[in-house]
């Protein structure tokens, strides 16, 4: 009996000791974030004011490369055109990859912030404003902050950091470009990959889930070919506008009658282009859109249904075969359950268990999925950027929603948001590489 009592006391003492060590580590991470924040805020505002679109992120990449070299990372630039890879060796151990994105969107910012972007570029042959309306600037500041924190706490972990800055996430092309340029052959292959993304929730919170986190996305273009003529004599024509309009409605039966209703899938037609004036029936109509899904079998079923519907619509009008172009996008982001088991307790300890929420699968898409499809177990986490009281007010019936990613009014509150990104990234890496 006495031996069991001593064993119980020993176990309690060990638990208390582990708890004290965890608290001390969390305090050290928070202290590093506080110490680095003024410089990180300046970095964030500079990047925010000078956004660059996909595969043109030369200034942004150079700025991050300089930051990482100053921390002692070995940096390789121009990976996947404008991407960079930064490696930090800290003894024998596994490699953990942490990704951020470099690119902004071809759109006008309307936040009214004192450091708002007024940058312009040429996008698709037209002049356009450019803005970090998806929050990649927040991610970059947190990415640098996490690197600073981990270097400062290198006595608490062992292994290799592989921090990558990826181009062209917004057009879901940058991850594949980096892989094609030797990301996992020229550099160490990571055991785990981590990424964070800002969203519309409350700052200080993070969301993730095992399994599907974001959808697969593919693009399509269909050219319906007809026979043009005068609007007063439709019988002498084959009207491609009527064909395209029929396709827009008929293709939705693929969703409602062919897809398992328990599984996610959506076909969206976002562009319909035909004709020049009202009294001429054109000789072709062009549709463009996207297909989104989680499961590979649903993805293939939607693609097959889209092709079949387009061919049948043309055949019903006695028209030539349509030209169908599928633009492969990216697979679904799938979070690895084993990675979550290894980092979840550390993230909860860092933020508080009530701040770590179970995410719902998102219907948006992300090319972070490319790394998992290369066989790297991955975890993608969303964190909030707005004051909790604003999030609460916006959730009430009839209230206007808060601006979300890609809105011209999307304006994260920088300080809590960037620090949250640092904490969840650092806690995850320390859980994966930390010394016993």
UniProtKB/TrEMBL annotation:
Its cofactor is Mn(2+). Residues 218-307 form the Peptidase M20 dimerisation domain. GO terms for biological process: diaminopimelate biosynthetic process. Residues 1-20 form the signal peptide. The Mn(2+) ion enhances activity. It comes from the Bacteria. GO terms for molecular function: metal ion binding; N-acetyldiaminopimelate deacetylase activity. SUPFAM superfamilies: Bacterial exopeptidase dimerisation domain, Zn-dependent exopeptidases. Mn(2+) binds at residues 134, 136, 170, 197, 406. Keywords: Hydrolase, Manganese, Metal-binding, Signal. PANTHER family: METALLOPEPTIDASE, PUTATIVE (AFU_ORTHOLOGUE AFUA_6G09600)-RELATED (PTHR11014:SF63), PEPTIDASE M20 FAMILY MEMBER (PTHR11014). NCBIfam families: amidohydrolases. This is Amidohydrolase.
